[in-house]
């Protein structure tokens, strides 16, 4: 009986060895599958990130093309406005020491011009034809809005805003507001007439 038990054990030995081998082989396969799954997850994450970048680039492209489309209509002044205009400014209200009600400025010309991307108004000194300042312009159905602000290196912060809302072929009228250091404000009436 002891011989038979020993025979049974010896006959079971190859079977147990085979099971052991298979279980080790399964662990290796499982580890390989885990590694492949992990690699796949990393690839999915990279792909998702690239997809987000792609979507972001698409939105940016669409945004830029819509701006470009809008700008094509508004980057050039209409012929009736483009060019040089003589100016007469009259101070109508002031809380600044530099300006008094009744002060007049008549020594400047306003040049309505454009560059490749925007409309501008260059203010020129009539005495020497030198550049005084450049306004950034916006033109729509409500009129012409001009903005100028000194840079951060100047001692005084000066902000100028102009609204020109009475526009014809030979005359443009509106108001200019000058704010100095956010402490005082002066308001001028603006009267532009077409240079001949």
UniProtKB/TrEMBL annotation:
Residue runs in coiled coils: 33-60
Q: Where is the signal peptide?
A: 1-28
UniProt keyword annotations, A-Z: Coiled coil, Signal
* The keyword Coiled coil belongs to this UniProt entry's keyword annotation: yes
Protein's name in the database = Lipoprotein
Task: Give the source species.
Answer: Pinibacter aurantiacus
């Amino acid at each position: 009986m002891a011989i038979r038990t020993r025979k049974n054990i010896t006959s079971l030995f190859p079977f147990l060895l085979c099971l052991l081998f298979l279980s080790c082989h399964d662990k290796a396969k499982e580890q390989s599958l885990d590694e492949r799954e992990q690699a796949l997850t990393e690839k999915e994450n990279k792909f998702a990130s690239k997809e987000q970048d792609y979507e972001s680039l698409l939105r940016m492209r669409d945004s830029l093309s819509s701006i470009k489309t809008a700008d094509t209509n508004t980057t050039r002044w209409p012929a009736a406005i483009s060019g040089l205009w003589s100016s007469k400014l009259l101070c109508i209200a002031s809380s600044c020491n530099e300006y008094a009600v009744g002060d007049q400025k008549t020594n400047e010309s306003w040049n309505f011009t454009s560059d490749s991307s925007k409309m501008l108004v260059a203010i020129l000194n009539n005495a020497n034809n030198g550049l005084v300042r450049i306004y950034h312009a916006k033109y729509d159905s409500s009129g012409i809005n001009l903005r100028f602000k000194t840079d951060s290196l100047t001692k005084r912060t000066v902000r100028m805003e102009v609204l020109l809302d009475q526009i014809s072929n030979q005359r443009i009228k509106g108001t200019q507001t000058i704010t100095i250091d956010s402490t005082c404000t002066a308001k001028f009436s603006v009267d532009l007439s077409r240079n001949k």
